Amino acid sequence: MKEKLEQIRAKALEQITQMEDHEASAALEKLNDVRVNILGKKGELTAVLKGMKDVAPEDRPKVGQMVNDTRAEIEAALEKAKKKMERALREAAMKAEVIDVTLPAKKNTVGHRHPNFIVLEEVERIFVGMGYEVVEGPEIEKDYYNFEALNIPADHPAKDEQDTFYINGDILLRTQTSPVQVRTMEQKKPPIRMLAPGRVFRSDEVDATHSPSFHQIEGMVIDKGITFADLKGTLQEFAKELYGPKTKVKFRPHHFPFTEPSAEMDVSCFKCGGKGCRFCKGEGWIEILGCGMVHPKVLRMSGIDPEEYSGFAFGMGLERISLLKYEIDDMRLLYENDVRFLKQF
Amino acid sequence: MNTALSWIKAYVPELECTDQEFCDAMTLSGTKCEGYERSDKNLEKIVVGQITEIAAHPDADKLIVCQVDIGEKTIQIVTGAPNVKVGDKVPVVLDGGRVAGGHDGGPLPEDGIMIKAGKLRGVPSEGMMCSIEELGSDRNFYPEAPEYGIYIFDDSVKVGEDAIAALGLRDTVFEYEITSNRVDCFSIIGIAREAAATFRKPFHKPEVKIQNETGDVNDYIKVEVQDKDLCTRYCARVCTNIRIAPSPKWMQRRLAASGIRPINNLVDITNYVMEEYGQPMHAYDLDTIAGNQIIVRRAKDGDVFTTLDGQERKLDSDVLMICDGEKEVGIAGIMGGENSMITDEVKTVLFEAATFNGANIRKSAKRIGLRTDASGKFEKGLDPYNAKDAIDRACQLIEELGCGQVIAGTVDVHAPLKEPVRVTFEPEKINQFLGTEIPAEDMLGYFKAIELDYDEKTNEIICPSFRQDLLSFADIAEEVARFYGYDKIPTTLPSGSATAGKLQFKMRIEQKARDIAEYCGFSQGMCYSFESPKVFDKLLVPEDAECRKAITISNPLGEDFSIMRTVSLNGMLTSLSTNFNRRNKECRLYELGNIYLPKSLPLTELPDERMQFTLGFYGGGDFFTMKGVIEEFLESVGLNKKPEYDPEAGKSFLHPGRQALVRYDGKVLGFLGEVHPEVCENYDMKTRAYVAVLDMPEIVPLATFDRKYEGIAKFPAVMRDISMVVPKDIRVGQIEAMLAQRGGKILESYHLFDIYEGSQIKEGFKSVAYSITFRAKDRTLEENDISGAMKKILNGLQSLGIELRQ
Q: Taking the C-alpha atoms of A141, A143, A148 and A154 in order, what is their torsion angle to the nearest 10 degrees?
């Protein structure tokens, strides 16, 4: 009996091994024949099982075990051979499916954000991270908020300098986002940290460097004990975030009616790193914003006691930053909305 | 403002620094230097030479051969200049030297012109004698130079010395940007004071002293100021025996560096004092002043006056005039009259140094249309104390230059002059405000350098009259900060209570709008807020339409920018048209921007500013493409129900059969449609274009970012397809409404999968096919659930005249 089983096993394994020399799809079929011939209902091994009745009852468990072991061994060999052949088949099939990976991509046509807004969102992100709330104010504004409440009384020369569009004597197109400072102070109690981006208007003819409509970003902090050093520190952080950690800043005294002391901030040129190039006109520095300590008069007019609170404010031209950042040489491009321009951002 | 460094150094003699150091330090202390240029740029190896011999050139009629003594030796120079003679002292550029320009006075080359020894028509020439143009200047600034030919020095210069120094060109001219609050720095003295304080060097103001005064000014002139509100001070002095002559070279050079052309001693003195003190001066020929009297009063409406440039000027009663006993002689602070103009024959001069109401001068100059150097200074509001100093200085210069005899005394008419402002000195508070630890003594040191006195008894800072910008604590703190150095102030971050950084809800909705538009292929555009009133006609808007009631700008850049937009489409269509006409095949744009709706006209209160989400495209899509974008956006901001589309949108600028209002919960959120072909034509677009406008203030209150998980269906769905023959005028929207209404709770969704009109369908009908999905959340549906629902649906459809297709 034992010899018989051994014989079946050897024969089956030999047949299976031989299959490997055949072409895969034919071999797979033949493999099935082997299975049927040996393990099938009329197969040789099944026949052995059928002969069990002739085995002495005390030997049956042992013989049964032997038959099962042989069966398992053959099945495993069959399975292994099958896997191997299937893999060969699949690989052959994939060889026929080779594609040219350098053919053009199929892209979803995604739209592009306006360069101005890319920069605006970047600035918003930086200040929101520092605890600023982004707010808005009206674009058609009262003279009071645009000038008077900002310490620019009726006869002030700054009123002329700003070339204001008027609707009538009291209502105008805001020339700056600074009125949002006043509106915010009127509505909120300190501590205030606000950022107010928005559209502003001045009567400049349209050319490569001027537009009668442009954008500013205003920022303001009001709290107890706010210092000029805090103003410097905050804007230095901002510059490093916007232009990279190596950026240096320089504060120069300046004059704005609604801040005192006032300053302009230059950043080390982000094109040349400060060595001097055509962007910074060889100076190594680029002026990017105006700032200062909120004028006590402005605080008082907005209902905040300057003896208790102090604060700083800053304002920057969005276009100035985005034009420089993207090296756009003509401001008119921003309003033409040519898709060939927009898709570059 | 442009100023020679040498003039500043005249008052700060110990100032020692390079040009760049000066520029940087002044900028950091608040007097911004825009830049500087050396006056001797490209002028190298140029000495004074004296012509000792002139001979004819053997081969050229127009050339001469000169022997020129340059000190250490004599060299030979060939020249074509017609104006030299033996004995003349001339600027000579030597071999290897450089001059600034050509003799024709054209634009100066960046690197000048190199001069080399050579031969002219065969005769060696070892250098060149220079014209003033070759030295980079012109006769405006060197009036003594000949019109054509070599510059000839007067006899005071020494042979062999530096010719450039002799011409006063060893100097640097700085350009400053002075802020409007620092009126005092629109003067040499003001800048010199700042320079002295910046470099911590002593400041020496000019000492004004007149040696020899005679007579009494009151015998020459009376002054009456009728409008004291407009004229805060009027000082008058008189000089007799005027001798008009050129002013000295040093004065000419200083004026020239400031960009002022030297004329004669009298004019130059008034200009010189205006630069030096920042106080404009006027000089009248006293013999033309009727009645020896000056009256300062307002003009009458409709008066006409001829200014000294010969132009007639229309006046009104807000213009302040200087008059004599009979007539007007000048527009106060702006320009004198032709009738009292100084001529070379002047014998007696009346000097005027006055201060006027700055705002009045500014407005008058604007109305008259005449802005002069003087009015530019007056409009800033000058210091009345300075006027007296300036007029005395002018008289001193008259005496020193030998230009005339100064008459004693000043006629000085003024309202009570302002007391100096006093501000309490609070060093701790200043340090707290700046975030610094500057000792009080240091602060007092800064103040002293800029002539701010400290009253120890009252502990007050006394601000001088020329510093009209110093009024309060913060102003004083700025002075400390400037001279301590902005760069030395530490950098800290605000301490104190934390605040939540955030975007307002409406901005988050707008951000979503941008995101969705871009996912859908639309790029962000930016359009103007103002436009032409003609856009309404372009958009075929009826005459009586509400949107024509737009806010008008009273001083627009032109009609094209004169009204505030009430519809956002013009910008979009203009942009699409730009793209179309530049042959961009497809274009998808969106814009988020305000329209401005007046609550009443004329405007008495601020208008309603409504953010519009405007989309537009042409090429690659249709009405339903746009509809898809709208629905994507609405779903993304939590408007999950299906919006309704009302074809009766009534938009004149859209195709009448291809437009719809977008309704949600009964509210109109906006509209979409195909642009009316005539409007396309008006915008020069030969293509179909589609637009949508969503009114964000309607959407924001409905929007939400809240979401709730509703589970994923556990029980199987059952689908039923129905194919219908539908009367043509029934919209699928009506069918869908019926499905939604009749489908009951188990209706999960429906999906249009075919719509067809054509030969196989009977006239007046179309074929429409839907796939309907039913599902229950809690059980597997049974056949009778479905058939019940379907029966209801079919009954409903039948009521619309719809038949099931067999």
A: 160
Amino acid at B56: A
State the residue range of the domain holding A314.
115-342
Q: Give the residue, A314 or A78, on which the prediction is more confident.
A: A314
DSSP string, B502-519: EE-HHHHHHHHHHHHHHH
pLDDT for B273-283, tens place per residue? 999 999 999 99
CA distance B486 to chain A (A): 6
Pair of tokens at residue A310:
């102090």
Q: Cα torsion for B534, B539, B540, B543, to the nearest 10°?
A: -50
CB contact under 8 A, A335 and B434: no
- The pTM of the full predicted model, rounded to 2 decimals, is 0.87
Q: CA of B786, closest CA in chain A: separation in Å?
A: 40
User: What pLDDT, in 10s, does the model give residues B754-765?
Assistant: 999 888 888 889
ipTM of the complex model: 0.88
- Cross-chain CB nearest to A111 (options B493, B499, B522): B522
- Cα B192 to Cα B12: distance, rounded to the nearest angstrom: 7
| Interchain proximity B494–A226, CB inside 8 Å | yes
Helix (H) or strand (E) holding B368: helix B358-368
Topology annotation, domain B505-702: BirA Bifunctional Protein; domain 2 (3.30.930)
Write the pLDDT tens digit of every residue in A31-86. Answer: 888 888 888 888 888 888 787 788 888 888 888 888 888 889 888 988 988 898 88
Residue A285 Cα, gap to closest chain B Cα (Å): 12
Q: Could you tell me if residue A102 is inside a domain?
A: no
Nearest CB to B179; choose among A212, A234, A255 = A255
Q: Are A136 and A198 in contact (CB under 8 A)?
A: yes
Contact (CB, 8 A) for A192 and B496: no
pLDDT tens-place string over residues B87-118: 999 999 999 999 998 887 788 888 999 999 99
- Asked if A130 lies within 8 A of B358 by C-beta distance, the reply is no
Same domain? For A20 and A162 the reply is no
